[in-house]
Specification:
This protein is an alpha/beta fold and 305 residues long. The chain folds into 2 domains: 72 residues, Helicase, Ruva Protein, domain 3; 204 residues, Rossmann fold, CATH 3.40.50.150. It has a 7-stranded mixed sheet, sandwiched between helices. It has a two-stranded antiparallel ribbon with strand order 1-2. A hairpin with a 2-residue loop joins strand 1 and strand 2. The longest helix is centred in the middle third of the chain and has 21 residues. The protein is elongated, with a radius of gyration of 21 Å.
């Protein structure tokens, strides 16, 4: 590159052009993220500082990261972190990259947790397949009266989740548990949460390269019909869920009826069905024992802002 190109503006345009030519769906956003990281600037200052000179080291870092992005590595994997809900989460090879759809699950869990704390004064939840800890950490940060079991089959994922809990100041209320689903959970639990693997095994090869080659397979593959995880969670519920407790799960496209039937077989009543930003049913909530709060009662629940 020429000397003139080693300024933010030309570097940004160069990166956008290369990403766009490669067919990137979000070339401007990815280029801004990578350049902000390499130049050590807040994302919002990249455009306003277009005339700022960039060191040769920063330009070289951008070129290296741009090459990785052009090869299909997701931009947040390159950065090593991703914003989710109200925090930023470190990523590692053992963790799924948290996505906006899962924030819908946190929204529903937030309502349930507020109601449980109003009734009992505290809430003990389990986040099955915690990965980066995005679900558990987000909720623990909202509710000081909550505690969480962060469950995963990967020790590496649990280590990442714990570092994220430390960064958010909630590590003292999160217990990492190396376990296959609820096998080592114990109880009684007020709330069971999970964004489990739900992609059919036969569909894995057709996933985008960003997902197929960079998210851990164990966090994607839900078995032949994509429902293995829901069966495992439902099978373990009796041993751990308190009467009146709740279960909230993320699901794949078109899985609502089958997942509802799996939990109904364990005497769990479907009382929440929430759509994602595309109108697809993405989150289901179940309860056992006491009926859910009426709308009138829910109006009196205090949910932290």
């Amino acid at each position: 590159m020429t000397e003139a190109a080693d300024r933010l503006g030309p570097l940004l345009r160069h990166a956008v052009q290369r990403l766009r030519a490669a067919g990137s769906a979000t070339p401007e956003f990815d280029a801004r993220l990578l350049l902000a990281e390499c130049a050590g600037l807040p994302l919002g200052e990249v455009h306003s500082a277009s005339a700022t000179a960039v060191s040769s080291g920063a330009a070289a870092r951008l070129e290296s990261r741009l090459t990785r992005r052009l090869a299909g590595e997701p931009v947040h994997r390159i950065l090593g972190r991703r914003a989710f809900y109200e925090h930023e989460f470190e990523l590692s090879p053992e963790t799924l990259e948290p996505r906006p759809d899962t924030e819908i699950l946190v929204d529903e869990a937030r309502k349930a947790m507020a109601a449980i704390i109003k009734q009992r004064g505290e809430c003990l939840c389990a986040d099955i397949g915690t990965g980066s800890g995005a679900i558990a950490v987000s909720l623990l940060a909202l509710f000081p009266q909550s505690r969480a079991l962060a469950i995963d089959i990967s020790a590496g994922a649990l280590a990442t989740a714990y570092r994220n809990a430390e960064a958010a100041g909630v590590a003292s209320r999160m217990l990492p548990v190396l376990s296959n689903y609820l096998a080592a959970a114990g109880g009684p639990l007020d709330l069971v949460l999970s964004n489990p693997p739900y992609i059919r095994s036969g569909d894995i090869p057709s996933l985008t390269v960003e997902v197929r080659e960079h998210d851990p397979l164990a966090a994607l593959d839900g078995g032949e019909d994509g429902l293995d995880a829901y069966r495992a969670i439902a099978a373990g519920i009796d041993a751990v869920l308190r009467p009146g407790g709740r279960v909230i799960v993320e699901i794949g496209i078109g899985q609502e009826d089958e997942v509802a039937a799996i939990f109904a077989s364990q005497r769990l009543r479907l009382d929440v069905s929430t759509r994602d930003f595309s109108g697809v049913v993405r989150v289901l909530g179940f309860s056992r024992g006491e009926p859910p709060l009426s709308e009138q009662e829910e109006d009196g629940v205090s949910i932290p802002s």
